[in-house]
Amino acid sequence: MKYIRDPKRIREVLGKKVQFILGDIACVYGGLLAGVSFFGGYPITPASEVAEGMARRLPRVGGVYIQMEDEIGSIAAVIGAAWGGAKSMTATSGPGFSLMMENYGFAVMTETPCVIVNVQRTGPSTGQPTLGAQGDMMQVRWGTHGDLEALAFAPSTVQECMDFTIEAFNLSEKYRNPACVMTDGEVGHLRERVVIPDEENLKIIDRRPATIDKKDFIPFTNSQTIKNCKVPDFPTFGTGYRTYVTGLTHNEKGFPATDKQPDHERLVRRITEKISDDADKLVMVEEMNLDDADIAFVTYGATARPAESAMEMARKNGMKVGLLRLKLVWPFPNKLITKLAKQVDKIIVPEMNLGQIVHPVTEFACKHCEVVSAPKIGGEMHLPMELYKYLEGK
Amino acid sequence: MVKIKTADELNKKFLREGMWPTIFCNGCGHGVVLEYTFWALEELGLDMDKVIFSSGIGCSSRLPGYINADGLHTTHGRAIAFATGIKAADPDFNVIVFTGDGDCAGIGGNHFIHAARRNIDMTVIMINNFIYGMTGGQLAPTAPLGSIATTAPYGNIEHPFDICNLACALGANYVARWGVSHPYQPIKSIKEGIQKKGFSLLEFLAPCPTAYGRRNKLGDIKKHWEWYDNNTILKEDLEKIMKYGSEQEKEQVKDKIPLGVFQDIQKPGFFEAYEQLVDRLKEKESKSIGGK
Ligand SMILES: Cc1ncc(C[n+]2csc(CCOP(=O)(O)OP(=O)(O)O)c2C)c(N)n1
Ligand code: SF4
Ligand SMILES: [Mg+2]
């Protein structure tokens, strides 16, 4: 039987409306609420709970769970399932994410909607498996070869693990591009209260299916059903469109076109512009105390929590400190950063790495203000006091 | 339904429009395997909207491009993992994978092993030309001992691996090996593989004159094709000779590659087992609700 999303059944399986759960499990809930019907995964700390949570629940909502042989196979099966008509996802951490890079690019090139949850840990290599980090924030943007636009969320709370997984599906389906939930070991293994949204309050976006006559259908071009949309209509396998889908540079028909410059440029421009054209609309941030701020934290994910505490301490001491929290890190909110840089004297970027997102912040601050990296590595979160010292300029 | 009689009619029905000509060299065996597959599909009379192809990277992996059907041309070695997801999304699909010896037995070996072990319902058609054709003739894991490749210029010192043996050991439901010079048995075998629930492997020994034959001095295209006839033997004949033949007869056949069906069993496939699991859960749940 083919999966049909049944909102009542999903809530039966999830249980009570208000729960106290792990961030990883919240990603499971988000996926199930979005209508995921295939999960392919491979165990890895601190992401295994996502696979375990799916293995328990997917068979009960009519979906399929498979533990694949590795992360390359996981993402491959996830992409295959997407073409078969499923909403599909996988979850991993740094080493697995590195293994997924080639097929992540394949998903971009073939415009395949799918979701990857990356519960980040430290690296390089095996690093500190049980401890959190934010080491893959650049890998998700630049880790696969070639040109692409990334869609990457960074949850700071367990509730956001659920909400952003749903949102990741929505963006992924809308733009036909893989979307990543870049959580981390801290948030993934945190237990917090979550509220499961009622169906009426849930916005679910599904890919736009191909509907026009089969002989007129062109699979890899602007939508043929709505105007001025660079996202093509989706010809689900098995619906008679008989589409050839290849990771080679292809023409609008989907046929390999590997030796002509214009074919490549047309394709790659379209699959990047379909997202970059909307970048301003896509901005998702939380602004705290920015109105009068002359120093601002720009941060994301778990790190936003100690940064917020540091900001509160500073405010009590009369310092004008604000915070910009990036909920969607990629596409990067370029214009917002430039605007902020014009307003404040200093931007501090705390991250659990030696400095990744500080680079686009510096780029788009355009020298309007000072930009300071506030790194912390080794699997420990910043202490509020440590960040407070950055505010004092120490 | 009017039955197709000629190769022209067959091609008209199954070839994808606009993709002709193929990338294949003169004398390449891949096209023959495609033709066999078309005949098998025609004889089975399947709804081609529900037959989905997946392939990796290599000359052999280009085959789905020429078929008028949905096809996912994936990354090198990963076609079987992609196909697992395709099948999971819709159990009504008939999933067929085209792959090469490098793609399947080399870089994709692990995906092959586990799909066969899980007995995922798919048909894998691996075309073995003893070489990495597409990239110009580098050493394949199937290359015969002593054979020459660009990356084994002094002769291959590694033992080739027998993918059929491996598939049998893993408990695949259907395992067969054929050549490309006699259509009847291979077509029948492809049909059996497709119809079989669970994992089917069909290995085809196919000439690659450009990257293998030339370098290994197997002569012109005609001679190269004859090599396969002279160096293969039906599995049943081989068994008979090894049992009852004279020493001289045994000596003549002992290095030949056996062709035939090596395994044909009915172990439940992954998705069958998964459905049973789902039913079991439903039953348990309805009991516990009823009991409350
Ligand atoms: C990850 C990766 N590594 C290497 C390659 C280069 N490559 C392309 S095809 C191929 C070999 C294909 O050999 P086989 O599967 O035997 O196919 P054939 O061309 O012989 O039919 C290789 C190594 C690639 N495309 N991707
Ligand atoms: S290189 Fe070999 S395998 Fe590739 S098309 Fe030519 S003959 Fe066929
Ligand atoms: Mg080969």
What does this structure look like?
The complex is a heterodimer of chains A (394) and B (292). By secondary structure, chain A is of the alpha/beta class. In chain A, 38% of the residues lie in helices and 20% in strands. Chain A folds into two domains: 7-201, 3-Layer(aba) Sandwich (Rossmann fold); 286-391, Rossmann fold (3-Layer(aba) Sandwich). Chain A has helices spanning 7-14, 23-34, 48-61, 71-83, 94-109, 139-142, 158-175, 185-188, 261-276, 279-282, 304-316, 334-343, 358-365, 384-391, and strands at 18-22, 36-41, 64-67, 87-92, 114-120, 151-153, 178-184, 191-195, 244-246, 285-288, 295-300, 321-326, 328-330, 346-351, 370-375. In chain A, strands 3-2-4-5-7-6-13 form a seven-stranded mixed beta sheet, with helices on both faces. Chain A has a five-stranded mixed beta sheet with strand order 10-12-11-14-15, with helices on both faces. Chain A is globular, with a radius of gyration of 21 Å. Chain A starts with 6 loop residues before the first helix and ends with a helix. Chain B has one domain: Thiamin diphosphate (ThDP)-binding fold, Pyr/PP domains (Rossmann fold, 3-Layer(aba) Sandwich). With 292 residues, chain B is of the alpha/beta class. Chain B contains twelve helices and ten strands. Chains A and B meet through strand 2, helix 4, helix 5 and strand 9 of A and strand 2, helix 3, helix 5 and helix 12 of B. The complex binds thiamine diphosphate (TPP), iron/sulfur cluster and magnesium ion (MG). Iron/sulfur cluster binds at residues 24-25, 28, 30, 59, 129, 133-134, 208-211 of chain B.
